[in-house]
Amino acid sequence: MAANGSQEKVDVLIYGPSKPVIDNGFPANFVLHKFENKHDLSRMTPEIAGRIRGVAVTGLVQADAVMLARLPKTEMVSSFGVGYDHIDFKYAAGHNIIVTNTPDVLTEEVADTALGLLIATVREFIKADRYLRAGHWSTQAFPLSPGSLRDRKVGMVGMGRIGQAIARRLDASLVPVVYHSRNPAKGVAYKHYPNLIEMAKDVDTLIAITPGGASTAKMINADVLKALGSRGILINVARGSVVDEEALIAALKDGTIMAAGLDVFANEPQVPDALKTMQNVVLLPHIASASVTTRNAMDQLVVDNLKLWFAGKPPLTPIAETPVKGR
Ligand code: NAP
Ligand code: 8YV
């Protein structure tokens, strides 16, 4: 509140796709400056840049150090998505900027997608759909699927919020689960493997659901795929960077593993032609959280974090690297 009783103006950069929950979600004292992409943003005047105090990152656009350095008054970056590998959170931490993300509200949706993608891949649903539409059913029944969940054991790569929600669904499907992460997850009874290759040797299915970034870059590589073996299936709902994409393509081509279901890619929205021409892969355009209900809940959390901060209250979901002190 300003000294004369009127609410002070808060200039906020809306960076990324325009969305109704975000566009209509702020009170009148918020002044929104909308830029959809990097090219657009390059046209922001220094005068506006100097007034920005909050940033809503509404899609997978990068908030890197160069971009944040243009906005010296920024107090908060409220990012859409639970993963925040597209935000330079180290720069933010060093410049007193709080970063928030959108955990929890998407957990069950993403877990649904992971299980759907697993079943579609193992049981060849997409191939069967193409077969029916091409009119082949009237002449011959679709071949039996070589894969089945009935004889599989899943190794989760990541056992956080979403990993545990996927594991619950696998429990209900009577599929045994083990997992790899750096530390054993609290309150989780599944067997923990500190070593990913050792786990890959003991299972035939991997589901990746870790953050992206340097610590997980290409962790699923040629050696891991070899350890997984010729019945192996890889499901990736984490980040494209977690998998060595070239090694995966080679492993799918030469039968080192059997199949893959991928929601994420190394260089989105580009997907290698080699993957697009393969019959033993199911490819989704990064849609694990992409229902209207869940995306609205994520957008609302982006708005709520900024509203709370500029009302002098702590945000709901700051990331661990930029903790809030003293509110
Ligand atoms: P979370 O609760 O923080 O869980 C992350 C898990 O990954 C933890 O088990 C963590 O355990 C493990 N992990 C982190 N770094 C690791 C490393 N270097 N090696 C091995 N394990 C590692 O996060 P969440 O809410 O489940 O979300 C997980 C990720 O899913 C997000 O960050 C995002 O990348 C991805 N995601 C994708 C979509 C999509 O649309 N496809 C949607 C939502 C989320 P330790 O820390 O003990 O290693
Ligand atoms: C979004 C995601 O699709 O939450 C995440 O980490 O990957 C997804 O829910 C992504 O943020 C797209 O903008």
Descriptive keywords:
five-stranded parallel sheet; Rossmann fold; 16% strand; single chain; alpha/beta; binds 2-keto-D-gluconic acid; 32% helix
What would you call the shape?
Answer: elongated
CATH architecture assignment name of the largest domain? 3-Layer(aba) Sandwich
What value does the average pLDDT take?
97
One letter per element, helices H and strands E, the order comes to EHEHHEHEHEHHEHEEHEHEHEHEH
Stretches where pLDDT is under 50 for at least 5 consecutive residues are none
Q: What is the CATH homologous superfamily assignment of the largest domain?
A: NAD(P)-binding Rossmann-like Domain
So how many helices?
Answer: 13
Number of strands: 12
CATH topology label of the largest domain: Rossmann fold
CATH class of the largest domain: Alpha Beta
- Write down the Rg: 22 Å
Strand order of the largest sheet: 8-7-6-9-10-11-12
| Strand residue percentage | 15-25%
Ions, cofactors and other bound molecules: NADP nicotinamide-adenine-dinucleotide phosphate, 2-keto-D-gluconic acid
Helix content: 25-40%
Task: Provide the structure class.
Answer: alpha/beta
What does the largest sheet look like?
7 strands, parallel
Q: How many structural units, i.e. domains?
A: 2
Distance between the termini: 17 Å
